[in-house]
User: Which sequence fits this backbone?
């Protein structure tokens, strides 16, 4: 028995390192989503950018789907669950997110998405899928407090957008938390690549009736290059790559452990804004960064 335990430990450690590396990459890409996504929302109407993002991701995933070697047969009862997952993950999440991003600075959605771990934890507790421990509660609270410290160090300018935009972003946060909780049981039955592809393809189908007419009527001649770059980033990196990384991590960790990485996004977004736009980094930024890292560590401790 001891030999089995010893041999299993390195495998578990390698798996954990892979998951944490995936979520670190996801965090880096998320910062790009806020910065480049802002350019896309300024270049396109919201309905158009959401539709093109969803359609672009769906086309790529549909082309790749036959090449997935690990896909399994979908149970008839799960088709509705996956379709609803697509509804939550695309129209209910992406539409309010991009509409809110259009009305606010990039730091605002990064900050508000830091509430994701708390919402995920509450949903998990309500469904009996999460266990609240003192360490996990302290970890989530510590990580979010780090975000608040970073915000205070920025002189509250990160909340400079209109309240309407912030409310839209909160709707997107709740939808993303619901997607996270709902995807977990499906990932016990289907590989992350397959579930990501099916959910986003069906999510695009949900979105088309709402944005197809505006997409055909829009004049694309005046769209700047940065707007196109932002759109491609949203469709390929944010939707395809980041959704896969999130689902792959969810398959191996509890939703609250995965979601807590969202607390790192405001810190990295502020850092990139400093590098790209010359924003000054304050002492509060470094204090907040330490709090976020500590909170992520506590929430992801193996004993939690």
Assistant:
């Amino acid at each position: 028995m001891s030999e089995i335990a010893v041999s299993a430990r390195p495998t578990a450690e390698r798996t954990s390192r892979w998951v944490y590396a995936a979520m670190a990459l996801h965090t880096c890409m998320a910062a790009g989503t806020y910065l480049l996504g802002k350019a896309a929302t300024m270049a396109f109407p919201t309905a158009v950018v959401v539709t093109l993002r969803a359609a672009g991701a769906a086309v790529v995933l549909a082309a790749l789907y036959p090449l997935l070697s690990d896909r399994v047969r979908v149970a008839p009862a799960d088709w509705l669950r996956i379709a609803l997952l697509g509804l939550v993950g695309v129209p209910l999440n992406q539409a309010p997110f991009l509409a809110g991003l259009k009305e606010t600075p990039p730091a605002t959605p990064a900050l508000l998405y830091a509430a994701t771990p708390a919402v995920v934890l509450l949903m998990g507790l309500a469904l009996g899928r999460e266990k609240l421990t003192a360490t996990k509660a302290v970890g989530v609270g510590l990580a979010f407090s780090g975000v608040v410290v970073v915000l205070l160090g920025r002189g509250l300018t990160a909340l400079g957008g209109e309240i309407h935009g912030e409310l839209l972003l909160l709707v997107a946060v709740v939808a993303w938390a619901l997607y996270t909780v709902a995807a977990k049981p499906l990932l016990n039955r289907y590989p992350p690549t397959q579930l990501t592809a099916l959910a986003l393809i069906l999510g695009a189908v949900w979105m088309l009736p709402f944005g197809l007419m505006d997409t055909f009527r829009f004049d694309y001649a005046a769209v700047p290059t940065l707007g196109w770059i932002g759109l491609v980033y949203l469709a390929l990196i944010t939707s395809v790559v980041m959704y896969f990384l999130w689902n792959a991590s969810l398959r191996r960790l509890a939703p609250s452990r995965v979601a807590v990485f969202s607390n790192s996004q405001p810190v990295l977004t502020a850092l990139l804004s400093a590098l790209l736009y010359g924003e000054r980094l304050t002492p509060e930024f470094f204090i907040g960064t330490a709090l976020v890292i500590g909170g992520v560590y506590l929430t992801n401790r193996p004993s939690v």
